[in-house]
Amino acid sequence: MTANQSLKPITTKINEKGHLEIGGCDLVELADKYGTPLYVYDEATIRTIAKEYKEAFSAYKNINMLFAAKAFMTKAIAKIMDSEGFGFDLVSGGEIYTVHSAGISLAKSLFNGNNKSYEELEMAVELGVGKISVDNFLELALLNNAAKARNKTVEILLRVTPGIECHTHEYIQTGHLDSKFGFDLTQVNDAVELILDEYKNLKLVGVHAHIGSQIFETQIYYDEVEVLLKEISIIQEKFNIKLEHINLGGGLGIKYTEADCPPSVNEIAEKIISSVHENAKKYGIEEPHIYIEPGRSIVGTSGISLYTVGSSKQVPKGKKYVAVDGGMADNPRPSLYQAVYTADVANKPEDEHSEKVTIAGRFCESGDILIKDIELPPLEEGDILCIYNTGAYGYSMSSNYNRVLKPAAVLVNNSQSDIIIDRENYEHLVSLDRIPDRLK
Ligand SMILES: Cc1ncc(COP(=O)(O)O)c(C=O)c1O
Question: pTM here?
Answer without folding.
Answer: 0.96
